């Protein structure tokens, strides 16, 4: 009930300033910096009193004027409850400065894990085009519950308001038999928001991957399976999705305890391609194998029109500093490993820049690490 009140307040406010987006303002001029190569720049170094791993799980969003916003899991000492810092770059990822914070406005738990940033490409319900969405796993300090909440900013990331709760789960431990939810990833499809996440609540699966859709950002439909294996212990997770130029969609995932003929680890990267991003459940799974190299753990996928008529599918994984590129629309035999100037990281983030020949890669460190946050922007190879 607390949530309902906040929704009403935030939407009234969203409507009142939505006109900001109809004026092509001075803000557009603010960031007239061309995309260029940026090599391993520091976004944020946490103070020594932060808890291990200090930072993790970086994400960005790019606004229409080219401004980049970045956030990450931020392990600051509590109180105050943990939050997602928003850092801003107006020079295409070269330098970064603190800009705002996304804080828990409804649970009294903090915004702890797995932020996702997304720029609305169209209006959804009362949220105007250009709204920035920050989805989050809100979790109390004792990790006893998990909740995927949606926050929105209609002023370029300066202030944030709670919009809705998508789903709730149990204790935030990734063990079979527990019931948490994890790793929200949002996109718009067919005039609806789609929220993908990993789900341990189904007693038939240690973990599966699911989505829910919403036409207004407030009311969310039923849980639909995307990837669920019949072997209970197998744990597909970490959904990200990209649209391909032939009308199809690719989802990459880590396939916990999935088959890995290369023997490179127990979380091999797999992918599925489907004609709709709502029907991955019936699409065949395919291992990502680049000439014998099978990357593992915490993938991220994007597509760029750079690289020829089919563009480039680009995948990052925890196991490699390199990226994996496919210029044949995901054809199983067409993956190429390609060097980057950026460090490896747990769930490293990718973003295709305005000039799609340039790719931003963001790292915020490793599980149990002593981490800090960095980015690079590299030119794609045009393979
Ligand atoms: C974010 O919150 C922290 C902790 O309350 C505070 O120290 C910091 O100044 C805030 N940052 C911004 C940009 O408001
Ligand atoms: C585009 O992808 C298709 C499907 O794999 C492939 O048959 C075709 O050769 C590719 N085109 C180019 C120019 O690479």
Automatic annotation (TrEMBL):
Membrane-spanning ranges: none
Organism, scientific name: Pseudogymnoascus verrucosus
Name the UniProt record assigns to this protein: Sialidase domain-containing protein
Keyword Signal listed: yes
Annotated signal peptide: 1-22
Domain of life: Eukaryota
Signal among keywords: yes
Alphabetical UniProt keywords: Signal
């Amino acid at each position: 009930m607390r949530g309902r009140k906040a929704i009403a307040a935030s939407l009234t406010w969203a409507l009142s300033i939505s006109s900001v987006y109809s004026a092509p303002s001075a803000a557009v001029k603010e960031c007239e910096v061309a995309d260029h190569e940026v090599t391993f720049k520091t976004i944020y170094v946490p103070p020594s009193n932060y808890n291990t791993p200090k930072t993790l799980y970086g994400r960005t969003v790019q606004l229409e004027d080219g401004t980049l916003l970045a956030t990450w899991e931020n392990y600051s000492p509590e109180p105050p409850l943990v939050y997602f810092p928003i850092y801003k770059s107006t020079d295409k990822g070269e330098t970064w400065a603190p800009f705002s914070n996304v804080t828990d406005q409804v649970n009294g738990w903090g915004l702890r894990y797995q932020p996702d940033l997304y720029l609305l490409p169209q209006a959804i319900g009362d949220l105007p085009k250009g709204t920035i969405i920050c989805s989050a796993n809100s979790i109390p300090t004792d990790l006893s519950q998990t909740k995927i909440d949606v926050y929105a900013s209609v002023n370029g990331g300066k202030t944030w308001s709670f919009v809705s709760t998508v789903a709730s789960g149990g204790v935030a431990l990734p063990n079979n038999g527990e019931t948490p939810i994890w790793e929200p990833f949002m996109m718009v499809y067919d005039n609806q928001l789609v929220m993908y996440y990993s789900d341990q609540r189904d007693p038939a699966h240690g973990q599966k991957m699911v989505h829910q859709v919403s036409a207004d950002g407030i009311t969310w439909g039923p849980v639909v399976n995307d990837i669920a294996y019949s072997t209970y212990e197998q744990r597909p997770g970490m959904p990200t999705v990209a649209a391909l130029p032939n009308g199809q969609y690719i989802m990459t995932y880590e396939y916990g305890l999935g088959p890995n003929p290369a023997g490179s680890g127990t979380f091999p990267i797999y992918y599925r391609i489907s004609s709709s991003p709502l029907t991955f459940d019936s699409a065949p799974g395919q291992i990502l194998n680049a000439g014998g190299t099978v990357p593992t753990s915490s993938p991220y996928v994007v597509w760029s029109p750079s690289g020829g008529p089919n563009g480039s599918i680009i995948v990052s994984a925890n196991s490699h500093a390199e990226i994996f590129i496919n210029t044949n629309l995901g054809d199983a035999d067409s993956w190429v490993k390609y060097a980057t100037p950026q460090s490896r990281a747990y769930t490293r983030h990718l973003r295709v820049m305005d000039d799609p020949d340039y790719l931003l890669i963001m790292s915020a460190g490793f599980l149990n690490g002593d981490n800090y946050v960095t980015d690079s922007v590299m030119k794609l190879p045009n393979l």
